[in-house]
TrEMBL record, chain A:
Encoding gene per record: pcaH
Annotated source species: Falsiroseomonas algicola
Biased composition (Basic and acidic residues): 1-11
EC number: 1.13.11.3
UniProt keyword annotations, A-Z: Dioxygenase, Oxidoreductase
Entry protein name: Protocatechuate 3,4-dioxygenase subunit beta
TrEMBL record, chain B:
Protein family (similarity comment): Belongs to the intradiol ring-cleavage dioxygenase family.
An example molecular function term from Gene Ontology annotations: protocatechuate 3,4-dioxygenase activity
NCBIfam families named in the record: protocat_alph
Keywords in alphabetical order: Dioxygenase, Oxidoreductase
SUPFAM superfamilies: Aromatic compound dioxygenase
Organism: Falsiroseomonas algicola
Alphabetized Gene3D superfamilies for the sequence: Aromatic compound dioxygenase
The protein's name: Protocatechuate 3,4-dioxygenase subunit alpha
EC number annotated for this UniProt entry: 1.13.11.3
Length: 234, 180
């Protein structure tokens, strides 16, 4: 059997570092030893297949049992491709977020903002053959955190994706355009490359917007592509 | 070419995507119900640079089936939240040896991935099994010269079918993390 084609290594400027001094929680949690670079084997180039019989789709966070959540209803849609523009089909996308008041449906979140009984804040969707996904939600609220004095997270939605190889596994955050908190946020700003940061910011999209119903935001996601040169030459 | 989207931390409030039953890969009515093999528990504590437990970690495993094949009759994915002691715990089947590059064979191993507040990107390591003959020639284990460092990749037996692998994010006894 021939060796699997490895995934391309990222340009470090386009990804956040583990050691990010402005983000306090990294101080005691980032590895200090150099990571061990391993060649990609089947362990890294294969990935779980998520059978929708066991991982059911849930694409509407804007209501629970037909009762609408409070807040501004939104539709988020986009495409998942690899770095070479190939669509990532049938990819499981997990999404979670705070409610419109900036509070998570989570016992550890003690922010003094109201919970919404009609908002749980999680979704699971699968991309189609062209890599497209879409879900309905509520625009999340900003919330304070204790990283530094008067720190507030910009509004965001968490995304988790599994690709075709474990090396493509990623969790990220989608932000909203025009948020004044972005310039102040240590998490957003740990990534050195400005264009890479800005790709985390969704765009308002009138074509996704549904009349009399919900505003639309576009967020395209790129997973690692395959390397052109096989590792055996290295 | 558009570079891959930047990772961002999972943060402390990721538990909306925690489904505790996913920690049991052999759960009734799950994707592996009825698959035969050597039933094991993989467990351990995750600690930070102060030795404090990581109580808000999201741990995922990825493994081959007992025959050494990925996703061919065995769904090798699990997810577990760490508890207030920093402990994770999976119930699964012991994987078989996995093909490596060329003619190499990789010793049985489970990929262990940790997401958490303070980790801008997840960290990836492997759990090998102490006493496995193939460990001596495994292509990844043999890349780590220091025996003490290498030991951070090897789970220890702790009673019938129970294997322990503690994960140290930083400092003394720091786990060998893989750049994959």
């Amino acid at each position: 059997m021939s060796d699997p084609i490895p995934y391309r290594r990222p340009d470090p400027a386009t990804q956040p570092p583990y050691d990010a001094p402005s983000y306090g929680s990294t101080h005691k949690r980032h590895p200090k030893q150099a990571l061990l670079r391993v060649p990609h084997t089947l362990t890294e180039t294969s990935a779980p297949r998520f059978d929708q019989r066991f991982y059911a789709t849930q694409a509407d966070m804007s209501q629970v049992g037909g009762r609408g959540a409070l807040g501004e209803r939104i539709i988020v849609a986009g495409r998942v491709t690899d770095e070479d523009g190939r669509p990532c089909a049938n990819t499981m996308v997990e999404v979670w977020q705070a409610n419109a008041s900036g509070r998570y449906h989570h016992p550890r979140d003690q922010h003094d903002a109201p919970l919404d009984p009609n908002f749980e804040g999680r979704a699971r969707i699968f991309t189609d053959a062209e890599g497209r996904y879409s879900f309905t939600s509520i625009k999340p609220g900003a919330y304070p955190w204790r990283n530094h004095w008067n720190a507030w997270r910009p509004i965001h939605i968490h995304f988790g994706l599994h690709g075709a190889g474990w090396a493509q596994r990623m969790i990220t955050q989608m932000y909203f355009p025009g948020d004044p908190l972005l310039a102040l946020d240590p998490i957003f700003n740990t990534t050195a490359d400005e264009a890479a940061r800005n790709r985390l910011v969704s765009t308002f999209d009138l074509e996704i917007t549904k009349p009399e119903w919900a505003l639309g935001y576009r967020f395209d996601i790129v997973l690692r592509g395959r390397d052109a040169t096989p590792f055996e030459n290295a | 070419m558009t570079p891959a989207t930047a990772h961002q931390t999972a943060g402390p409030y990721w538990h909306m995507i925690d489904f505790p039953e996913w920690a049991d890969l052999l759960r009734a009515d799950g994707p592996n119900a009825g698959v035969e093999g050597d039933r094991i528990t993989l467990t351990g504590r995750i600690t930070d640079g102060d030795g404090a437990p990581v109580v808000d970690g999201l741990v995922e495993i990825w493994q081959a089936g007992p025959d050494g094949a990925y996703e061919a009759g065995f769904h090798g994915f699990g997810r577990c939240a760490t508890d207030n002691d920093g402990r994770y715990r999976f119930t699964t089947l012991k994987p078989g040896p996995v093909p490596g590059l060329g003619n190499a064979t990789q010793a049985p191993h489970i990929t262990v991935t940790v997401f958490a507040r303070g980790l801008m990107k997840h960290v990836v390591t492997r759990a090998y099994f102490e006493g496995e003959a193939l460990n001596a020639t495994d292509p990844v284990l043999t890349m780590v010269d220091d025996p003490a460092r290498r030991a951070t990749l090897v789970a220890k037996p702790a009673g019938a079918g129970v294997w322990t692998l503690d994960i140290v994010l930083q400092g003394e006894g720091e786990t060998v993390f893989l750049d994959v």
